[in-house]
Write a structure and sequence with these properties.
Radius of gyration: 31 Å
Distance between the termini: 81 Å
Helix content: 55-70%
Number of strands: 0
Order of helices and strands: HHHHH
């Protein structure tokens, strides 16, 4: 008897393409443990915040750091001012990259900012290249349509 039961339990419990839970997990439902943790956090959040503020006032620099990072989060970027030439063709793009390199070399922008700006210029180059290819393909197709008529 045990052998026949084991045979039935092995393999796929559902037919291919058939889900064990066709409707899936309901939207917005949460695991009970996460809901319990949220409830604990909500109940004690005000007390924890008061304690951190109190500790910061007493000179605890870690508590002060926690508060400051919440009030003034670290900036992920800043506006940069680099004079770039108008970018209308491939030669202009080379000049633009040169301006970025010069700005990094002069210390006007960081290498990371230069890399980000170069990425934007590269995206512009790809867009220009795509437009150029489309224009050439249209010219080729127009030439073939005119020649075969």
């Amino acid at each position: 008897m045990a052998e026949s039961t084991a045979e039935q339990q092995r393999g796929r419990p559902f037919q291919p393409g058939q889900s064990g839970n066709p409707s899936g997990r309901p939207k917005g439902s949460r695991h009970e443990a996460l809901a319990a943790l949220d409830a604990i956090g909500t109940e004690n959040a005000a007390d924890v915040l008061r304690k951190v503020v109190e500790m910061a006032k007493e000179g605890d620099m870690r508590a002060a750091e926690i508060l400051v990072k919440r009030v003034w989060p670290e900036r992920k970027g800043r506006p940069i001012n680099v004079a770039l030439p108008p970018m209308q063709n491939a030669a202009d793009l080379v000049k633009a990259i040169g301006a970025v390199v010069e700005a990094v070399a002069a210390g006007d922008i960081s290498p990371e900012e230069g890399q980000a700006l170069s990425g934007i210029i590269e995206t512009h180059r790809r867009a220009y290249e795509t437009e150029e290819l489309e224009r050439r393909m249209a010219a080729i197709e127009a030439g073939q349509a005119g020649g075969s008529a």
